[in-house]
Amino acid sequence: MEVDKKEEIDSESSEQVVNPWEVSAKDGGKIDYDKLIDKFGCQRLDESLIDRVQRLTSRQPHVFLRRGVFFAHRDFNEILDAYEKGDKFYLYTGRGPSSEALHLGHLIPFMFTKYLQEAFKVPLVIQLTDDEKCMWKNLSVEESQRLARENAKDIIACGFDVTKTFIFSDFDYVGGSFYKNMVKVSKCVTLNKAMGIFGFSGEDHIGKLSFPPVQAVPSFPSSFPHLFPGKDNLRCLIPCAIDQDPYFRMTRDVAPRLGYSKPALIESSFFPALQASTLLSSLQLLKGENGKMSASDPNSAIYVTDTAKDIKNKINRYAFSGGQDSVEKHRELGANLEVDIPVKYLSFFLEDDAELEHIKKEYGEGRMLTGEVKKRLTEVLTEMVERHRRARAAVTDEMVDAFMAVRPLPNMFE
Amino acid sequence: SPNYLLIFLVLQELEIDYSKYEHPPVLTVEAQAKYVSSSEGALSKNLFLKDKKHRYYIISAMVDTKVDMKVLSQRLGLGKGGIRMAPEEALGELLQVSLGCVTPFAVVNESARDVSLLLDKNFKNQARCIFHPLSNDVSISLNTAGLDKFLKSIGRDSVYVDLEANANPAVGKDQPPDLALYVPAASVVVPELSNKASSIQTPPTKNATSEIIKPVASAKPSKPAGNVNSVSANSVSLEFKNPEKFVEEILNRTSALLLSEAKGESVEALPGTLRKRLTSELTLLAIMYKNTAYTEGFHAGKNYKPYRL
C-alpha cells in the first residue's frame, strides 16, 4: 500500500521527518534518501531511465538528472512508454508563495520543469497555492495573492513558454470543473486517512483538512477544460521535491476510483543550506545537509536578488567548507567532499561534468584549495543569478496576466 | 551629461560636505593643480584599466602613490602583463566621461556597473581629496567618509587598497593574489572596440597638447552603449522587445565569447564551444522575447473592439 502508516508519524522525534511542512534529519544525521524511498514506496531513477530520456529527447539529459538531484520517481517509465508510442503528457508543478524572496532552492523544480517542457514539447500547468499559505502561514488573503503574483514573475523568468504554460492561483481559479474534481476526491478520503497521511490533529482548523484535494486535482486533465477538452486520458507528470510525495500518494490512491489515470512523479532531493554547524555533537541538528534551505535566514541561502558582491560574501563567509584547517594539512589529507557545501552546490549547478570531476579530484586530494572552489562557485552562481535577473526584468504585470489568463493553448504540443 | 548634475543632488541630499571648484577644462593633474590649490585637498590620479577578459577597473590614487601595473596585475591574479590602460572608446561607453576625466564618481553610471573601483588607502589620511565629478572643468573636494557615503548610496562598498604593498609580490601558491576578490564578475563588451583599432587613452601625467582635445561643451561620448543614462532602474530592456536590440544582444554575447575563447582554441573547435556555452542563455533570451510579443498580442486582444457599422 502506498499510504503511510499512522505509527510512523508518531515516532517523529527519533526519526527523520519529511512532509510538506517540515523537513529535518534524524538527530545528528543527514537525510537518508534511501530510507525515504523505502518508506514512501517510490522508485530510484536509475541510469537506464536517464539513457532512455536521452534517446527519446535527442538531447543531453538535464544536469539535475545526471547528478542525481532528481533521483526518485513513480511511474516515470510508464510515461516514457506512452511517449514512445506517441501519447503525450502534460506537466504539473507548483509553488506555495509564502515569501517574496526566492532562493536557488526554490528555482530547482522550475529549472527542471522548464527542461522537461522543452525536451518533451509538452504543456505545463503551474499552481500557486496562495490559499495554502494564507491558512498555514496566517497571511491575509490579499498578501498571499500578492505574493503569488510576485512569485509568478520569478517563475516566468525561468524561461517558460507562454504558448504552452498556464499559471493559476487557487484563489482565482478554484471553481467550476476544478472544484467538481475537488469534491470527487474529498469523498474518497476519510478524516482518519487524511490525519494519517498528513499528521493533522483535532487542533488543526478545518481549512487545513480540506486543502489536500486542491493540490491533488491539477493532476487530472478534466480540471482544465479550457486546456484539455476531451482529453480525459492525458497523463500527468509531476516534478516536485520529495516532501510533496504525501499529497500525490493520496491522489494516486484516489485516481482509479474516479476513473482517472494516476499521475506520475519525478522527485528531487533537498537543496542544502549554506552552513552546517561544526560536527561537535551528534545530537546537534546540522543545518547544512540536514534541513532544507530556509527562506527565513537570509544567510542560509543565495537569493535571486543577491548582487554579485552578496553572492561572493555569502559563499566566502557562510558556505561550509570540507577543507582542512591549514594549507599543509589540506595538501596532505585533501578535502572532505561529503560535507563540503561548495562542491555540493557545484554538483547542482556546474553543467560541465568533466570540470566537476576535475574539481572533485583535485580538491579531494588536496591540490586545490577551498578558496578556488568557492571562487568557481561564485562565478557559476553569479552568472545564473544575473541571467535570472535580466529575464525577470522583462516580466511585466501584463505578462503575468497573459500567463494566468484562462485561455486555450492551441500549440501546446509543438 | 545628466549624471553630472545628479552627483551634486545626491551629495546635497546625503548632506555630504564638499567644495566645488570651476576652472577651464584640464586633461592632466598638473593642469588641475594650477587651479585647485593643495590646501583644498589632495589631488588624485585616476586610471581606467582593462584586462584581457574585457573586465574594467578604476584605480584612484594619491598623485605620489606609485602604481606599478605589473604588480597590480599580479595582485589581481591576472599574471604579469594582464592589465593595461583601457582604450578611449571605453571611457565614453562605460564611464560616460571624456579624456582626462576618470573619477570614482563615474561608477554612478549604469554602464559602469561591472567596473571595479579600487581606492588608494592613503586617501584616508587626508582631510580632503579632489576628484572630477564626471566633467573636467569642475573639481570637487570631499573627505573619504563623504565619498564612502556617496558610494554606499548607489549600492557600492568602498574598497581601499594599499597600492604600494607587496612591491615584490611573488604571487603564487603560498601568497595568493590578494586583490583577486576585486576582479569584476562580468566582462563587458564595448561595441566600438571590435570595429576600429583601439586608440590608447592618454595617461594623466603625459602632456596632451598633441592630441585633438574633444570640445568640452559636447563632452558626451559619441555613441552611448544603449544603456539608460540615469541611475534609476531600467524599464523592460529593449532586447526583449526590439528586434534590432535582440539581434545586437545575441551578437554581443557571441562576440564576447569568441574573443575570450579564440586564443585558446583551434578554429574548428570554436563553433562547438559557442554552441555549448551559449545555447541555454540565448534560448532564454528568445523565450522572453516570444513571451513579450505574446503579451503584447494578449493586450491587443483584450482591448479589441469589433468593427461597428
Automatic annotation (TrEMBL), chain A:
Protein name: Tryptophan--tRNA ligase, cytoplasmic
Keywords: Aminoacyl-tRNA synthetase, ATP-binding, Cytoplasm, Ligase, Nucleotide-binding, Protein biosynthesis
Superkingdom in the source lineage: Eukaryota
CDD domains cross-referenced by the UniProt entry: TrpRS_core
Cellular component terms (Gene Ontology): cytoplasm
Family the entry assigns: Belongs to the class-I aminoacyl-tRNA synthetase family.
An example Gene Ontology biological process: reproductive structure development
Any one GO molecular function term: ATP binding
Species whose genome carries this gene: Thlaspi arvense (Field penny-cress)
Location relative to the cell: Cytoplasm
Record bears the keyword Ligase: yes
Its EC number(s): 6.1.1.2
Signal peptide: none
InterPro entries tied to this protein: aa-tRNA-synth_I_CS, aa-tRNA-synth_Ic, Rossmann-like_a/b/a_fold, Trp-tRNA-ligase
From TrEMBL, chain B:
Chain ranges of the YbaK/aminoacyl-tRNA synthetase-associated domain: 23-150
Annotated Pfam families: tRNA_edit
GO molecular function ontology, one term from the record: aminoacyl-tRNA deacylase activity
SUPFAM superfamilies in alphabetical order: YbaK/ProRS associated domain
Gene3D superfamilies given in the database record: YbaK/aminoacyl-tRNA synthetase-associated domain (3.90.960.10)
Coiled-coil intervals, chain numbering: none
Recorded family membership: Belongs to the PRORSD1 family.
PANTHER family noted in UniProt: PROLYL-TRNA SYNTHETASE ASSOCIATED DOMAIN-CONTAINING PROTEIN 1-RELATED, YBAK DOMAIN-CONTAINING PROTEIN
Descriptive protein name: YbaK/aminoacyl-tRNA synthetase-associated domain-containing protein
Organism: Thlaspi arvense (Field penny-cress)
Taxonomic lineage of the native organism: Eukaryota, Viridiplantae, Streptophyta, Embryophyta, Tracheophyta
